[in-house]
Amino acid sequence: MLTEKSYRIDLVDALRGFAVMAIMLLHNIEHFNLYAYPEPPSELIAKIDSGIWDTMFFLFGGKAYALFALLFGFSFHIQYTNYAKKGGDFRWRYMWRLVLLFGLGCLNAAFFPGEVLVLYAMVGFVLVPVCRLGNKTLLIIAIILMLQPYEWGKFFYAMYNPEFKTGTAWIKYSRAMTPFLQDGNFWAMVKSNLWNGQLFSHIWAWEYGRFFQTASLFMFGMLLGRKELFAKPEEHKSFWLRTLIIAAICFIPLYYLAAKIPGSFENRAMRGSLSTILQSLRNFSFMTILASLFVIGWQNISIQKIFRKLCPYGKMSLTNYITQSIVGSFVYFGYGLALFNVVSTTASFGIGLLMLTAQYLFCCWWLKNYRYGPFEYLWRKGTWAFSKK
User: How do residues 172-215 score in pLDDT, each as one tens digit?
Assistant: First the structure.
């Protein structure tokens, strides 16, 4: 018989494992942001490559990261609540935890210039001033952020100022980092990744609404925790079913609008802002579909048995996220096997499956002997360092 606590943790761990697995596969077909591929040997291979790319990005592009962010906010709620029960204020400890996450993110960024932990560490501070707000106020703020107010501001400014141009500095830094990814000098690559790569990644994230979207998802995750929608899904079947239906209804027009409407504007700045807004909402709606389907499926015993197999991977999500960058960079970048211009999208997808399998088996073995993954343990020990509680 499952206890309430284990039931909650298992569901969230499985969902987190699902998200990180999807991220792993996306990173592989992207060659970890080194977009160089060999010419397809045949038209059939080209179609297969295109089919895998389009399918993976339709299902998980912008959605797996969104789900990961949602669960980050949920985890903050659990930690904040548990510490409050002991009479403590977790906010100070949490800010120190974000500093540590920033350090782990920099380690990850040394190998992979498109990593997301540094972004989470920076945006995560937004939870400190809002964590004591009421549910209604928090929901309103989360909705406003998801609607991309900055992009709407740029859209209307460009409407009355046609000469206005949006920033493209991320392109410069992307071009600057690419030669170092291809070259065989490891330390030059690390230096470039920590400078050019991080500037590219975060300027791109700012220009494409990821800062506002991530903050919003953190808050939505907090709300899911407050309402115990993951903790007691069997008591909220109607909520998840309604959410699934609403998200599906919203996704269909958003998918069409994101593909068609921005292109009808001649002004590049207006077109870019509107595209960012619509794509953000489209990805959010599809992420909601994935999360709802997962939670609804979890309540079926047969499906839950399958989903539970994702728990070990989810429990070690931080370790898996960082190690996939280390291994992936070695596989594709110039300092390692330099397969970036050798393997196709299809072959890269296969490599991703092999990496995923190896990580999964390692997680199952590790958790039989230890309670936390290696990087989870370091983050936890660092978080509670100098604590008397």
Answer: 999 999 999 999 999 999 999 999 999 999 999 999 999 999 99
Contacts of 173 (CB under 8 A, 6+ apart): 196, 197, 199, 200, 203
Q: Which amino acid is at 31?
A: H
Report DSSP state, residue 194. Answer: I
247-281 in b/e form (b: 16+ CB < 10 A) is beebbeebbebbeeebeebebebbbbbbbbbbbbb
What angle separates helix 149-160 from helix 268-298, to the nearest 10 degrees?
160
Yes or no: say if 27 and 340 are a contact pair by the CB < 8 Å rule. no
DSSP-based helix, strand, coil % in the chain, nearest 5? 80, 0, 20
The dihedral formed by the CA atoms of 247, 249, 255 and 256, expressed in degrees to the nearest 10: -160
Report the run of H or E that residue 322 belongs to, with start and end: helix 317-332
Q: Is 299 helix (H, G, I), strand (E, B) or coil?
A: coil
AA letter at 238: S
Task: Answer yes or no: are the C-beta atoms of 45 and 345 closer than 8 Å.
Answer: no
Query: Whole-model pTM above 0.85?
Result: yes
Residues 287 and 66: beta-carbon distance below 8 Å: yes
Nearest to 2 by CA among 16, 17, 20, 14: 14
CA–centroid distance for 2 within its chain: 29
Smallest CA-to-CA distance from 304 within 314, 294, 312, 313 is with 294
Element (H, E) at 44: helix 43-60
The answer to whether 165 and 229 have CB atoms below 8 angstroms apart is: no
Buried b (16+ CB within 10 A) or exposed e, 33-69: bbeebeebeeeebeebbeebbeebeeebbbbbbbbbb
d(CA 314, CA 329): 22
241-285 pLDDT, tens digit per residue, is: 999 999 999 999 999 999 998 888 889 899 999 999 999 999 999
DSSP track, 167-186:
--HHHHHHHHHHHHHHSS-H
Helix (H) or strand (E) holding 373: none
